[in-house]
Amino acid sequence: MAFDLKNESDVKEYVEKLGIEYRFGCYSEKKPDVCHLLGDYLESIKKDFEKAGKVFRSNCDDYGYAKSCLKFGHYSFLGKGKASSVDKGDAKQAFQYYTKGCELNDADCCLHSGLIMISKTKPAIIERDITKGMEALTKSCKLNNGTACFYLSGMYISGVYKNDDAKKTTTPDPSEFAVQKDMKKAFDFATKACELDNIYACANLSQMYMKGDGIERNEKKAEQFKKKALEMQEALKKQQAELKFQQGLGNA
C-alpha cells in the first residue's frame, strides 16, 4: 500500500504500521538492530521513555547490541524513563553500561566510560583510575571518535597528576604524574582529532605548528589549520542559525 505522507491520516497509519513492524522484528524475529529501532521509535515517536529504556536495556543485556548499551547508559545517567531508582540518575549504572558497550567496540561508550574513570567529580562516581580511563579513551580514538582523540591530546599537553591535591610547581617531580607531558603524542592525537573534524583540535594544531610544539615550526601549516578551524566555526554557526529558524517555524 502506498502512503501519501502529506496526508495526516496516512501519516498516522504509516507510523502505526512502522511500530507493528518493529515490534514483530524485535519480539518475534529477535533482531537486535530492529529492537534498537523499536527503542528509537518509542523514544522519538511515542515519547514513551520508560518503555524505550526497557527495550534499550534488554537489547544490550540479552543481545549485546552496543548502541543500545550506549542509549541505556544515557538513560541511567539522566534518570530518564525511570531507568534509575535515583531521581537525578544513576551514574554508576550508566558506567556499567558504557563499559559493556565499550567492550563491544562502541566508540561513544568507550569515550563516556573513559571520561568517568578520569573524572575529578566529588563524590566520585567510581574510584578514579587514570590508566584504565586512558585505555578506554585510546580505544575510542582508534575507533575514530574525534572527541576522545582531543581529550587525549589535551592530557598529553598538560600532563595529569596522580594526586589532584599535589602541589603544582614549575619543576614537578615526574613521579607525581600518572600521564607525563608529551607534546609529540599530543600532536599526534590532535592531528587525528582534527582529521575527524574536532574544531578545537584543529585550533590547537595551528598553535602547535606556530610555536613548534611537538612538531617542527611551520607557519604555513599553522595558517592552514587556523583556516580549517575558522571554516568549521562558520559552518557550525550556520547550522545553529538554521536550527533556530526551523524551531521558530515550528512555533509559528
Largest sheet: 2 strands, antiparallel
Instruction: Please tell me the overall pLDDT.
Output: 89
Q: Which structural class do the helices and strands define?
A: mainly alpha
End-to-end Cα distance, whole Å, is 34 Å
Oligomer: single chain
Principal-axis shape equals globular
Radius of gyration, taken over Cα atoms and rounded to an integer in Å: 22 Å
Low-confidence segments, given as residue ranges, are: none
| CATH class identity of the domain at 144-164 and 174-240 | Mainly Alpha
CATH architecture of the domain at 144-164 and 174-240: Alpha Horseshoe
Content of β-strand: under 5%
CATH fold node name of the domain at 144-164 and 174-240: Serine Threonine Protein Phosphatase 5, Tetratricopeptide repeat
Strand order of the largest sheet: 1-2
Question: Could you state the order of secondary-structure elements as H and E?
Answer: HHHHHHHHEEHHH
The CATH H-level homologous superfamily of the domain at 144-164 and 174-240:
Tetratricopeptide repeat domain
Tally of strands: 2
Family: Belongs to the hcp beta-lactamase family.
Keywords: Coiled coil, Repeat
Protein name: Cytochrome c oxidase assembly factor 7
Coiled coil: 215-242
